[in-house]
Design a protein that fits this description.
heterodimer, A: alpha/beta, Chemotaxis Receptor Methyltransferase Cher, domain 1, 2 domains, three-stranded antiparallel sheet, about 40% helix, B: mainly alpha, Hypothetical protein af1432, globular, disordered C terminus
Chain lengths: ~300, ~300
């Protein structure tokens, strides 16, 4: 539910040799403890900028005052969300995480296909939870289509993309993107799966759209979450920051139950589940981590 | 491994014309590493650095690199050593002296990639060790640095066969060890062990070199071997591998090595693996810069 903004992001502050205010490292540790997002050193400067903007808006003068606002104020949770919004804004784009896609195509798909090969219905179900304006869903769809003549020959792929926000869903359905959202998309994919709208915008072609069903869903609506069963893969990037501790655990439990045995759950590249769920196995692939619901025959459940 | 293969390896290692002798600064350095840092005398370190012109020059170069952001580069060895700190000096000494023992002109492996992995693994081993109260961090570092030394032996003694194994690994996107086993019938673990024994390295380090792909086979140093095994895997999924895509899924917590380590170090349970992984990403850049600075001229020649 990060806004798939198409406006340019504020350029990161240049790395200066003067030491950083230790409060920012304190904030970084707090952000990890509260929501499992790890801000790498390079992101720390972005966060420091974001803190500056928030302080200005709140009329605070020192970083210490802002720390108090984040930790001791009645509205601390709201403030933390504001801050994280500032930090993660503009992150959304197509092909955001190549290591995740490599893991999917080179390691996970061969494994899933081998495991499900005896099933009569050769079907793969993927859920993009908190799909925002559709970037992730289309990226997944295009990558699945790339495998349709190879690994996934004879398979049906269904991608379910849900978001809380109606406007995001409408925009996702349209599938129109500008340069900024397409900054990581190669010419190969642009030529193969997009049509030109005008000089600055491309639209996803119907062949890709056909794979995806967009719909509105509140991840906190327990009764609806019960009907999302039978998933092989769930992607939920930068969404869990919007939930407090207990509701986050509940949502993660739902994801776990909705996955088939042997299925995978992915978060954003610097996000983690911390210790919120001990049933998932944290697994590493080159350059990315994921969470695995052990298969029945692995005997590791 | 059959006895016949073991004999072949030993014979080849023995017969090497350019037999890598143990670098002169190596053993005194090991001794230094084993002493508590507060007991290490600065003069001794400076003496070791000054022993070899090339190494002294490397230390000065690294100390002047942007890594340390000094306004003015240090001009003396003492200045360089103070800038770098004891640990980095040790790293540079070990790397350079090993580099000299294995002249890189015939390597079928990119030396830059080799050192990135070795230094990377050493760094991860130390950081991992630091999470465990009763672990010996310097030994962990040393073990990480030397675990793959068998690849250097392969480059010298089996360069043709090893070249084939590397090609096979890259093509199939499988680990080097598997490719070595498939094409050569033995691996860097066995060749590394032959050299380590020849050099009379300590038994723990020999165990690490011989068993870091199967810690359960180690008879005397299982926890250390397990730590290196896990760190090696972690390196290979976080950009400090051998520079090619390995198709693998790594479940560290359910790896037998994790249980071995946990048996010895109960505090392993409290380690947040995801957080540790992200922390390492911040350190990767330093490893890259360090290797680029140490091998600056070699890298420039290569590309």
């Amino acid at each position: 539910m990060t806004t798939g903004t198409q406006t340019a992001m504020t350029p990161p502050a240049t790395k200066v040799s003067e030491p950083m205010d230790p409060i920012f490292r304190q904030i970084r540790d707090m952000v990890y403890k509260v929501c499992g997002i790890f801000l790498l050193e390079e992101k720390l400067y972005l966060m420091a900028d974001a803190c500056g903007r928030r302080m200005k808006e709140l009329g605070l003068r020192t970083s210490r005052e802002y720390w108090d606002r984040l930790t001791a104020h009645a509205n601390r949770e709201t403030e933390l969300r504001h801050l994280l919004n500032e930090v993660t804004i503009g992150e959304t784009c197509l092909f955001r995480s190549q290591p995740q896609l490599d893991a999917l195509r080179k390691v996970i798909l061969p494994e899933l296909v081998a495991e499900k090969t005896k099933q009569v219905v050769k079907r793969l179900r993927i859920w993009s939870a908190g799909c925002s304006t559709g970037e992730e869903s289309y990226t997944l769809a295009m990558n699945m289509l790339e495998e349709s003549e190879a690994l996934l020959k004879g398979w049906t792929v269904e991608i379910l993309a849900t978001d809380l926000n109606d406007r995001s869903i409408e925009s996702a359905k349209a599938g129109i993107y500008g340069d900024y959202a397409l900054r990581a998309t190669s010419d190969y994919f642009k030529r193969k799966y997009f049509s030109t709208i005008d000089k600055k915008k491309l639209q996803v072609c119907p062949e890709v759209k056909k794979l995806i069903t967009f719909s509105r869903l509140n991840l906190q609506d327990d009764s609806k979450m019960l009907f999302m069963r039978g998933m092989d893969l769930v992607f939920c990037c930068n969404v869990l920051i919007y939930f407090d501790g207990p509701s986050k655990s509940k949502v993660i439990d739902h994801f776990f139950s909705n996955l088939n045995f042997g299925g995978y759950f992915f978060l954003g590249t610097s996000e983690s589940l911390m210790k919120l769920n001990d049933k998932f196995h944290l697994v590493h692939f080159p350059g990315t981590i994921g969470y695995w619901k052990p298969s029945l025959k692995s005997g590791k459940l | 491994m059959t006895t016949a293969i073991a004999t072949t390896i030993r014979e080849r290692v023995d017969r090497l014309k350019t037999i890598p002798s143990i670098p002169a600064v190596f053993l005194p350095l090991l001794k230094l590493l084993n002493a508590p840092p507060e007991q290490v005398k600065l003069e001794e370190v400076i003496k070791l650095v000054s022993y070899d012109n090339t190494i002294a020059a490397q230390c000065l170069r690294v100390a002047s690199s942007p890594l340390f952001g000094l306004a003015k580069s240090p001009e003396s060895i003492k200045g360089a050593v103070l800038t770098l700190g004891l640990r980095r000096v040790q790293t540079i000494l070990l790397t350079c002296s090993l580099g000299q023992a294995f002249p890189t002109n015939n390597w079928v492996l990119d030396p830059i990639v080799f050192w990135r992995h070795s230094l990377g693994c050493a760094m991860v081993c130390r950081k991992f060790s630091e999470k465990l109260a009763s672990s010996d961090h310097d030994k962990a570092y040393m073990a990480g640095l030397l675990h793959d030394i068998g690849f250097l032996v392969n480059c010298l003694a089996f360069s043709e066969e090893f070249g084939v194994a590397i090609k096979h690994a890259l093509q199939e996107q499988i680990p080097f060890g598997e490719a070595e086993r498939a094409t050569m019938g033995f691996t860097h673990c066995e060749t590394g062990r032959a050299l380590a024994e020849k050099w009379h390295l300590s038994n723990d380090i020999v165990q690490v070199i011989a068993h870091h792909h199967a810690p359960e086979l180690s008879k005397t140093a299982q926890p250390l071997v397990a730590l290196v095994h896990l760190s090696d895997l972690l390196c290979r999924v976080r950009g400090l591998g051998y520079g090619y895509y390995e198709r693998h899924k790594v479940d560290l917590v359910h790896n037998p090595a994790w249980a071995i380590l946990q048996n010895q170090h109960r505090d392993l349970e409290g380690v947040d693996l995801a957080h540790f992984t992200f922390e390492l990403d911040d350190a990767v850049e330093e490893v890259f810069e360090l290797v680029a600075t140490i091998f600056g001229s070699a890298a420039a020649k290569k590309h």
